[in-house]
Amino acid sequence: MGEFDLIARYFARGAMAANPDAFGVVLGIGDDCAVLAPTPGHHWLVSADMLVEGRHFLSTVSPRRLGHKALAVNLSDLAACGASPRAFFLSLALPRADEAFLAGFSQGLFELADAHGIVLAGGDTTAGPLNINITVMGETPRGQALLRSGARADDDLWVSGTLGDARLALEVFRGTLSLPGHQFDEVRLRMELPEPRVALGRALRGLATSAIDVSDGLAGDLGHVLARSGVGATLRLADLPRSAVLGAMPQDIQQLCLLSGGDDYELVFTAPAEARERVLAAGRESATPVYRVGRIDAQPGLRVVDGAGRLIEQPLQSFDHFKS
Ligand SMILES: [Mg+2]
Question: Do you know which Pfam families this protein is assigned to (predicted)?
Fold first, then answer.
């Protein structure tokens, strides 16, 4: 199967031209360039993420879940900025034109794309080691993008969903932990089928002062917000939302997965204390649970406190279980 057949069969859907339902995409796959039409009074937001086997996904993941995850991690960046998804571009290197892989991958990819009304508007395919590179584009009303730089002292610190399950699953794959089969399936789902918090991000426009998605771990990602905003934070470990599976693990494992576990794709955001009710309403409106987990401080640095409010020394020290 040649490159053009491969694209036609798996990635170009319907007419290789304008899809009248594709908001913002005048011409998609089929010419040298896509033609896009930004909405007047809006800003385009663009983000790219590359996925490499062994680093961003394991060879054990099904093609369908991999297609979902490749787009999900990109949509998560749009979610963190409060953007509405519009178009994406896919560049794919494949060792060979494996039709079973392509059928599953494109199915997972388009199921998620359709759920968010985003259109594949172009890209490239080539032979080579498996490598998935996606660029997403979205829109917000002019000046309403949520940025990392807006957190202010005394803002509340919020987190969506639950944290740490993807890391827990990774540790089971690594053999450092074991879980009963049904519990493993549950956390594995979080690692392989993350749900980008697009609806929440949109509901937080004009409300959150800053936001970021958790891709590398809460402490590290929150650190980017603190650095860009020139503030610090106090995080209440006991208030961090976690699944029943993670909540039943030993404390040190919970702490590691909650603070350093990557691949959660939840949103961490800040908002003024007087906006609490409206933040809770944004959570309900987007059917996304949100939790208040700390506070922004004028004093730089991240402080983690336990349930009694005592400072935890070196909360990110590595644990024996996870020496690597
Ligand atoms: Mg991000």
Answer: AIRS (PF00586), AIRS_C (PF02769)
Total domain count, the chain: 2
Cβ-in-10-Å burial (0-12, 13-18, 19+) of 145 comes to buried
> Among residues 117, 141, 165, which one ends one of the domains?
141
Ligand-binding site membership of 32 (annotated) = yes
Say if 148 falls within a structural domain. Answer: no
Confidence label for 152 from pLDDT (cuts 50, 70 and 90): very high
Please tell me the distance between residue 74's alpha carbon and the centre of ligand 1 in angstroms.
8
Q: How many A from CA of 20 to the centre of ligand 1? A: 30
**Is residue 28 within 8 Å of 89, Cβ to Cβ?**
no
Per-residue confidence (pLDDT) for residue 18, from 0 to 100: 45
- Tens of pLDDT along 113-127? 999 999 999 999 999
pLDDT, tens digit, 9 for 90 and up, residues 272-310: 999 999 999 999 999 999 999 999 999 999 999 998 999
Is position 154 annotated in a ligand binding site?
Answer: no
* CA–CA gap between residue 319 and residue 253 (Å, rounded): 8
β pairing state of 267-271 and 210-213: antiparallel
Q: Do residues 75 and 206 both lie within one domain?
A: no
pLDDT in tens, 221-254: 999 999 999 999 999 999 999 999 999 999 999 9
**CB of 198 closer than 8 Å to CB of 79:** yes
Residue 307 and residue 297: Cα distance in Å, rounded? 19
* Residue recorded with tokens 């409300």: 207
- The 8 Å CB, 24+ separation contacts for 13-16 are 13/110, 13/120
Q: What does DSSP assign to residue 289?
A: -
Residue 123 assigned as binding residue: yes
* DSSP letter assigned to residue 39: P
